[in-house]
Write a structure and sequence with these properties.
With about 450 residues, this protein is α/β, with parallel strands linked by helices. Helix content is about 30%, strand content about 15%. The radius of gyration is 22 Å and the shape is globular.
Length: about 450
C-alpha cells in the first residue's frame, strides 16, 4: 500500500491485455479502474466470469529462444509480465511450448488482480470510449456492439473484422489409448501429446467426410475472411486434400511405437488441464455444425467414443485499422491519452495481446507521471511487433503474430544461427531500456501485490 496514491487510469476489458495493462500501471503506484462486462453481459464463447479466461487454445506457443514466440516471452518476463508469471504457475506438459490449465490460469490472474489494492474491478459494460484519460481500450475481439459502434465513430471508419474458430476439447477417459500414442515431434518435450495415427485410406475418408459436412455459418459470416494463421480445419481441406497433412495433421517427427513407422497423418491432442482429464485438438478449430462435428471427429482412430467438453465453434474477432489509428506507443494518433491494447489493437494471439497490454500499461504509467511514453527499438520483439501495428500498409491491414520476419534482418545464411543472433541482439537492446520501464521499487512495495517487480 502506498501512502500517496498516484493519479487514476481506466482500463476497459478484463482479458489478457487488460489485466496485464492494469497490473503494469498498479505496480508503479497508480490507481486503476478495471472494467469487465462479464457476467453482467455475456459473450458467445466465454464460460465463466473470471478475468483472462482463455476461449481458444490453451497454448502460449513455443518457449524455445530460436522461435520468435520464445524471444517475445523472454522480453516480457524481463519487463515483469503478470500474464507469463501466472501462465508459469498454471503450466501443463506441452513439450517445448508453454500451455496452461485454463481454469487454474484464469483463477490465478483473477485472484492476483483482485488482491491488488491499487486495482478496482468494476463488473459493468462500458458502451463508450472514456471521454477523459489516461484510458486503455482492451475489449478484446468480442467487443460488445455498442462499444464497437463507439470505436467505429472514433476511428472515423467502420471497424475491421474477421472470423475465428475454436477447437474441440475431449474428455481424456473417452480417448482410446490403445490407439492414440504419447509423444512429441522429434521427442522434444517428452510424451506431452497424444497422437491419433491415420493411414492413407483413413485420412482420405476423413477428408472426404470433412468436405461433405454441412458447415454453412450464419448469413452474417458470409464473405468475411478468416485469419490466415488460424484457419478452420475444413477450410484447410478445401485448399487441397493434402493441406491438413502438411499443417496440423503433419506426421513428421513422430513414430507409432506399435509399428515403428511414421503414420500417414496424425491428429494431436494437447493436455488442457493439470489433472490431465481434458485434451484439446491441436489445429482443429472449425465451424462445423455440432452434430456433424461429433460424427466426423469420431472417425479419427482413437476417438471413436470421444466425449466432448466443448465443441468447435466460430466467432467474430474485431480489430481496428491500427496503422491509421495508433502510434508505436499504442497511443491514438488523434488523442494521446487514449491507448488500444490486445486483439482489438490489431495484434493476433494470446502472447501478442499480452505484450501489447504490457507496453500500453507501462506507457500509461509514464503518462501519469508526466513522462514521455517509450518506443522500444525495432530490434526487439516487442518493438518490432508494435512497429508493425503502427506502420503496416493500412489499405490491406491484417493482424499479425510475432515472427522473426518483423525484426530488422541480419545477413547470416544459417537460419538457426541467424535466429539466435536476432535474439541476442534483441535482449541486448532491451537491456538498455529496462531501467526506464521498471518501477522504482518492487510491485510488492508499491501495491501490496506479493510479486517481485
Amino acid at each position: 500500500m502506498i501512502e500517496k496514491p498516484g493519479r487514476e487510469a481506466i482500463v476497459v476489458g478484463g482479458g489478457l491485455a487488460g489485466c496485464e495493462a492494469a497490473w503494469q500501471i498498479a505496480r508503479r503506484g497508480h490507481l486503476v479502474r478495471l472494467y469487465e462486462m462479464r457476467p453482467v453481459r455475456k459473450t458467445a464463447v466465454h464460460r465463466t466470469d473470471r478475468l483472462a479466461e482463455l476461449v481458444c487454445s490453451n497454448s502460449f506457443k513455443s518457449n524455445r529462444m530460436e522461435n520468435a514466440s520464445g524471444l517475445l516471452k523472454e522480453e516480457m518476463r524481463r519487463c515483469g509480465s503478470l500474464i507469463l508469471e501466472m501462465a508459469d504457475r498454471a503450466r501443463v506438459p506441452a513439450g517445448s511450448a508453454l500451455a496452461v490449465d485454463r481454469d487454474r490460469f484464469a483463477a490465478e490472474v483473477t485472484g492476483t488482480i483482485g488482491g491488488n489494492s491499487n486495482i478496482r474491478i468494476l463488473r459493468e459494460e462500458v458502451t463508450e470510449i472514456p471521454e477523459e484519460g489516461p484510458a486503455i481500450v482492451a475489449t478484446g475481439p468480442l467487443v460488445s456492439d455498442r462499444m464497437a459502434d463507439s470505436i467505429a465513430r472514433f476511428t472515423g471508419r467502420n471497424h475491421l473484422y474477421f472470423f475465428d474458430a475454436v477447437s474441440p476439447i475431449i474428455e481424456a477417459e473417452s480417448i482410446d489409448t490403445t490407439v492414440a500414442f504419447p509423444g512429441s515431434r522429434y521427442g522434444k518435450g517428452g510424451d506431452d501429446y497424444l497422437n491419433c495415427p491415420m493411414n492413407e485410406e483413413q485420412y482420405s475418408a476423413f477428408i472426404e467426410a470433412l468436405l461433405r459436412a454441412e458447415n454453412r455459418p450464419p448469413q452474417e459470416f458470409e464473405k468475411i475472411p478468416f485469419f490466415e494463421g488460424c484457419l478452420p480445419i475444413e477450410e484447410l481441406a478445401r485448399r487441397g486434400k493434402d493441406t491438413p497433412r502438411f499443417g496440423p495433421m503433419r506426421p513428421v517427427g513422430l513414430r507409432d511405437p506399435r509399428t515403428g513407422q511414421r503414420p500417414y497423418a496424425v491428429v494431436q491432442l494437447r493436455q488442457d488441464n493439470l489433472a490431465a482429464s481434458h485434451y484439446s485438438m491441436v489445429g482443429f478449430q472449425n465451424s462445423l455444425r455440432w452434430g456433424e462435428q461429433k460424427e466426423i471427429i469420431r472417425r479419427i482412430p482413437g476417438l471413436e467414443k470421444a466425449e466432448f467438453v466443448r465443441l468447435g465453434m466460430i466467432h467474430r474477432n474485431s480489430y481496428i485499422n491500427a496503422p491509421k489509428v495508433l502510434l508505436p506507443t499504442l497511443q491514438c494518433r488523434r488523442r494521446q491519452d487514449l491507448f488500444f491494447a490486445g486483439q482489438i489493437s490489431g495484434v493476433e494471439g494470446y502472447l501478442e495481446s499480452s505484450a501489447s497490454g504490457l507496453i500500453a500499461g507501462i506507457n500509461t504509467a509514464l503518462l501519469l507521471e508526466d513522462r514521455e511514453p517509450l518506443v522500444l527499438p525495432e530490434t526487439t520483439a516487442l518493438g518490432a511487433l508494435l512497429h508493425y501495428v503502427a506502420n503496416a500498409e493500412p489499405e490491406n491491414y491484417q493482424p499479425t503474430n510475432i515472427s522473426f520476419g518483423l525484426l530488422p534482418p541480419l545477413s547470416i545464411r544459417n537460419r538457426r544461427k541467424r535466429n539466435q543472433a536476432l535474439g541476442e541482439r534483441a535482449l541486448a537492446d532491451l537491456q538498455k531500456f529496462l531501467v526506464q520501464i521498471r518501477p522504482e521499487t518492487t510491485g510488492a512495495d508499491r501495491a501490496g501485490d506479493g510479486l517481485a517487480g
